[in-house]
Amino acid sequence: EKLIIYLIGTTFLTHHICIWMDTMDKRDKRKKRVFQLGILLLLGTILCLKYRNFFFGNVSKLAMVLHIDWSYQDQLIFLPIGISFYTLSAIGYMADVYWGKVKAEYSLVKTALFLGFFPQIMEGPIARYSDVADTLYTGKSLEYRNVVDGYVRIFWGLFKKMVIADRMALMVNQVFDHYADYHGAVILAAAIGYVIQLYMEFSGCMDIIIGSGKLFGICLPENFRQPFCAKNPSEFWRRWHITLGAWFKAYIFYPVSVSGLVKKWNQYGRKHCGKHITRLVTSAIALFPVWVANGVWHGAQWNYIFYGMYYFVLIMLGIAVEPVRD
Predict the structure, then answer these.
(1) What does pTM read for this prediction?
(2) Phi-psi region for residue 102, left (φ > 0), alpha (ψ -120 to 50) or beta?
(3) What's the number of CA atoms in the CB half-sphere (13 Å) around residue 82?
(4) What CA–CA distance (Å, rounded) separates 283 from 233?
């Protein structure tokens, strides 16, 4: 129960930082510093809670290799439920206010409702303020159509989660926990089953969450759109965990794409390297932090970082062979 203080703190911080920026002129240099302060406090909190053991644990291992007398013991840290989701929503809202895309909300209750709307607090989707503000604050009374559509979506999500994902997990866990007892074909079937289980569990939860919002007339953004029908890795990530990809695109990819470094490279590349190589390097510069962040966001372990780099390499290979493929 004490961990809800982090959500309350994030809400107060985001609310007052956005109002502070809203009162400043666009040309006021202090506005950028206020924005940076807000981002630093939000990221500092989640880094301290979620990634402290990972960071200091790796520093400790490096110190051991270098024969430096310093060690770190992992600390027991209770992670607040939903911190990864509401922190990204808060940062996105703060950035939109800073860029002038939305006006700051002066009602603390409405800011709290946006960041702490109960169905999405644990699993997402990661809603942008402009996506949900209209329906979230309207306060519609219950309507027959919304109740029917909401319950249909909820029951469909429960079917995917409880009937398919949970049953599939029995087979997957049995094979993965005792893989030495099975042949390759069975392990391959379990690997495919795990993908089905993961998709049905995650998308089923999204159906429950979106259906819960629909009951109240609140339209939450979709998070899946037939991802296994994608033609390439880039398209897959435009269909899988859509709101996370959209967040990275809006708040990491685009800012890096228009940064001074990329502009200088584009000027140099067009003169000396050709259009395709210039685009390839520009994409690499903008996509690398996106996929590092994607991996780190999923978990404080090296396997998640390698997972992000795996998709980064696949997407870059897709861009590299575009001329031949086309």
Answers:
(1) 0.88
(2) beta
(3) 22
(4) 14
Tokens of 93: 């809202």
| CA atoms within 13 Å, Cβ hemisphere of 29 | 0
- In a 13 Å sphere around the CA of 32, the CA atoms on its Cβ side amount to 4
Beta-carbon contacts of 318 under 8 Å, excluding residues fewer than 6 positions away, are 232, 233, 234, 325
Cis check: omega of the bond before 80, within 30 degrees of 0: no
Cα distance between residue 200 and residue 166, in whole Å:
9
**Tens-digit pLDDT string for the chain (326 aa):** 667 889 999 999 999 999 999 988 877 888 999 999 999 999 999 998 889 888 988 898 888 888 888 888 888 878 888 888 999 999 999 999 999 999 999 999 999 999 988 888 888 899 899 888 888 888 778 889 999 999 999 999 999 999 999 999 999 999 999 988 898 899 999 999 999 999 999 999 999 999 999 998 888 999 999 999 998 888 898 999 999 999 999 999 999 999 999 999 988 888 888 888 898 999 999 999 999 999 999 888 999 999 999 999 999 998 888 888 77
Quote the CA–CA distance of 273 and 97 in Å, as a whole number.
38
In whole angstroms, what is the distance from residue 269 CA to residue 281 CA?
9
Q: Cis bond leading into 125, ω under 30°?
A: yes
Number of helices and strands in the chain (H, E)? 16, 0
295: Cα within 13 Å, side-chain hemisphere? 17
**How far is 262 from 33, CA to CA, in rounded Å?**
23
Q: Closest Cα to residue 251, out of 50, 35, 106, 105?
A: 35
Q: Give the number of other CB atoms < 10 A from CB of residue 237.
A: 22
